[in-house]
TrEMBL record:
InterPro entries assigned to the protein according to its UniProt record, in alphabetical order: Dimeric_a/b-barrel (IPR011008), YCII (IPR005545)
YCII-related domain ranges (all copies): 49-131
Keyword field contains Signal: yes
Designated name of the protein: YCII-related domain-containing protein
Transmembrane region(s): none
Similarity annotation: Belongs to the YciI family.
Residues in the signal sequence: 1-19
Keyword Hydrolase: no
UniProtKB keywords: Signal
C-alpha cells in the first residue's frame, strides 16, 4: 500500500510540474513585444470605451454635423498620437450604444482626458462608459493593414 501511495504521489508531482511548464513561442520577437508594451504572455491593458447617445437633445443639425466632423478629425489625430487603437460604430441596439474605442492606455484618468478632446463628447452628443480591457498587445498592428484594404470611402 505504501508503494502505491508513493507512486501516486510521484506521478501527481510529475503531472503538476509538467502542467506548470511554460510553453515557449519559437516565433517570439522581443523587439516587437517591447514596441507594443507586451507582457510575457503577449497581452496588455487598454481602456475600452463604449460610446452612447449623449444627453444633448437640442443641438441643431449644423451643431451636430460640426461636432461629428470634429469627432472624426479627432479620431484621426488620436491614431497619429498612438492613443486610439480601434474605433468603429455599433449596429442598432436598444441600449443607445453608438460605437467603441480601444484606447492605448491603462489609465482611466488618461482615458477621460482623451475623451475630453472629442467635440461630440464635449457637446454632450455622445457620452461614454469606460473600463479597463485586457487584450493582445499586437492589436495596434491591424492599423498598418487597415489603410491598405479599403478601396473607397465617403
Amino acid at each position: 500500500m505504501k508503494k502505491i501511495t508513493l507512486l501516486l504521489l510521484l506521478l501527481s508531482v510529475g503531472l503538476l510540474v509538467n502542467a506548470q511548464e511554460k510553453k515557449i513561442n519559437p516565433n517570439y520577437d522581443e523587439a516587437l513585444a517591447k514596441k507594443y508594451g507586451a507582457e510575457e504572455n503577449g497581452m496588455k491593458m487598454y481602456v475600452l470605451v463604449i460610446l452612447k447617445t449623449g444627453t444633448n437633445t437640442t443641438a441643431t443639425k449644423v451643431e451636430t454635423d460640426s461636432a461629428f466632423a470634429g469627432h472624426m478629425a479627432n479620431m484621426g489625430r488620436l491614431v497619429k498620437l498612438n492613443k486610439l487603437i480601434v474605433a468603429g460604430p455599433l449596429g442598432k441596439n436598444d441600449k443607445t450604444y453608438r460605437g467603441i474605442f480601444i484606447l492605448n492606455t491603462k489609465s482611466l484618468d488618461e482615458a477621460k482626458e482623451i475623451l475630453a478632446t472629442d467635440p461630440a463628447v464635449k457637446a454632450k452628443l455622445l457620452d461614454a462608459d469606460i473600463m479597463n480591457w485586457y487584450g493582445s498587445a499586437a492589436l495596434a498592428e491591424y492599423l498598418k493593414a487597415e489603410d491598405k484594404i479599403w478601396k473607397a470611402r465617403n
